[in-house]
## 1
Amino acid sequence: IYEPTLKDDEFAKTKVIKDLDEFKRISDVIVANRQADELLDVAEKVYTRDVYSRDYPKAKVALGIGTTYTT
């Protein structure tokens, strides 16, 4: 679990990671409520219900969602 504000080192018998870079490095899969710019470098690991990245325009562009091309 990644939770930088939790004071405990464990939650529900699961280790709590407070450093995002460490969390991304050790995780095989990241389940998130929303896509976030901080997760763009590990987008292939992220599973989210935010399939259109509505809340994060930078993520939308980086992931090629909603991109329009003109000639």
## 2
Amino acid sequence: PALLGLDLTRNQIEIVDRDAFQNLENLADLDLSYNKIQILNPDSFRNLLNLSTLFLNGNRLKNFDASPFYN
């Protein structure tokens, strides 16, 4: 069975690596809330073709490039 949702809240994540979600192409919901993320590499989400919900609230984001999420 494919993983459809992943909750990574409150894990003190600081960096989301480029290949963090490499084999999760069926993932629809991703919650990265309340971590310590400051910068997101837009390529981190490139393989998440079915991603419909991304929660980033409660992080320390300085800049966010939303262009990878536009079709």
## 3
Amino acid sequence: DGGGSHVSVAIAERTTQTILAQSTAGPVNIRSVGFETATKNLLDAIEKGFATLGRKRVEVASLVMGLAGAG
């Protein structure tokens, strides 16, 4: 979930839908911060989530996003 103030990421196990990790980073509203900054902040939040699991970012089975300013 992301917008003009921050982005929140939750990493869940696919079959049980158990949340394994959560993290946050800066804003991702491309109209407020621009595409490059929004992309960096989104990737930072994802990497932080995987880091709390002691893992590097990996390919995932699915992704759901709710982002403000996307269109």
